[in-house]
Amino acid sequence: MVTHLYLGVIIVAVFATVANAEINVVCEKDSVKITWRIPAEGVPHAARLFLGNCMASQFKVLPTGEGEAQFNYKFVDCKFTKLLKGKKQLFQNELTYRPKAKGQPAAFVYPIECVYKRPEGWVPPFLNPGSGLSEGRGGLVFHMALLDEQLTGIAKTNIIPLGSFMPIWAAVEQKSHQPLLLLMEECLATTTPELQPNSQVHPIITNKGCLAESMTGNSKFLPRYHSSSVVLYLQSKFGLGQEVYIHCKLVAWDPQVLDESKKACHYVKPDMRWELLDDPARSSICSCCDSTCRSRSRRGVDAESRGFSYNSVLGPLIIVDPSDSNADSMSKSPL
């Protein structure tokens, strides 16, 4: 008991010196340089200082007896987290002092963040399946998937806390086609992978491209990175405790020909109006979302030449109560 108490006093004392240390952070183009100066009392414990999972790249004892730990690492090292927020690109990590064995919580945490302007024209590769040269006509490949919270890749879990957001990505791989606009004409949630008469149905997008969930919740379409893909930022407020499947009719369409029947509209609550995702100045196209949106009269051949459709299913997604401690054990790979 006395030994444990003695060690506890040492840890607390060292923590106090580390917490009052001087930390200097310099963000460079693709790396960071950090200088962490600690009092003399902390020098014997320098091996317990970390940036993410990296130890100091250099440590020296100064003439004053103080210690100086230097961390010079690229953002691809040390488990940096990359985030995209609007026009900014962020790299985040933590400096920690970990006096206890691996797996135990840190005694001291100092957040590290480097913020940069998002590179012009940068598009996450998975959001731009239509990149490259296009000539003539050919087959189309449609995709639909659940993204991670940072919108940087495909989600690694299908467990969704109730009330949180599900970024649902849909795209068309254009191959030899000229640029096409990917639209979600209709989406609904069910408890079955196939639509059946007894399926529980929850409408998400109706009326030929109107995001109904944006009126009753906080769902919306995110700004496009590329015309051939779209992200539906869907709030999970249905299907608690059940397997949920998202059924969508995807349409690849001529971006120059938008009308009441071919559009992506969401409701802007503060302004109490519908907005067209691809050109807010033409949001009058969305006014029919409060009634019935109809197609313009066109010859069948003309309409067929302008677009192609595909019925896609995403799931199962499992909506859970955030307080449910068993939620993680329910994980399955999304289809």
TrEMBL record:
Coiled coil start-end: none
PROSITE patterns, sorted: ZP_2 (PS51034)
Residues annotated as signal peptide: 1-21
GO CC terms in record: extracellular matrix
Keyword Ion transport in record: no
GO molecular function, one term: acrosin binding
Biological processes per GO annotation: binding of sperm to zona pellucida; egg coat formation; positive regulation of acrosome reaction
Pfam families (alphabetical): Zona_pellucida
Keyword list, A-Z: Disulfide bond, Signal
SMART domains: ZP (SM00241)
Domain ZP, first and last residues per copy: 26-272
Top-level taxon: Eukaryota
Name of the protein: Zona pellucida glycoprotein 3f, tandem duplicate 2
Lineage of source species: Eukaryota, Metazoa, Chordata, Craniata, Vertebrata
